[in-house]
Design goal:
mainly alpha, about 0% strand
Length: about 120
């Protein structure tokens, strides 16, 4: 009797469905450039793969708390909420003061920082 051959799935094919289901839900303003940012992030498989690998390394290998895309979404929502509160109180973001950008642009900068804050954990310990 010959051994049964095992068909191996590539890591990409195993992750395709779970990563496709990842969708950030962000409280956006009525209009603005930032909506294009969220659409791009939700469509980017590479970013989602970084989040997945970061979560695996943080939770399974390092025993840390949740660092999944849900954690990223929570950090993103908190970061944007804090930024908007500060802007309403008169705090001028440095990208506005130093680079003549708008507050909407500053929100995208804050969002990018929030979206990428765990990516360093995608590098194995």
């Amino acid at each position: 009797m010959q051994p049964r051959s095992r068909r191996r799935c590539s890591p990409r094919s195993r992750l395709a469905k779970p990563l496709a289901e990842v969708r950030l839900r962000v409280p956006t303003r009525e209009t603005g450039d930032s909506s294009a940012c969220w659409k791009a992030v939700n469509a980017d498989e590479q970013v989602k793969a970084w989040w997945h690998v970061s979560a695996v390394n943080a939770t399974r290998r390092l025993g840390m708390s949740d660092h999944s895309w849900v954690h990223i979404q929570i950090v993103l929502n908190i970061g944007l909420r804090l930024a908007r509160l500060l802007f309403r109180r008169g705090v001028v973001p440095s990208v506005v003061a130093d680079y003549a950008m708008s507050e909407r642009d500053a929100e995208v900068v804050v969002a990018a920082a929030c979206l990428m804050h765990c990516v360093g954990m995608s590098i194995p310990p």
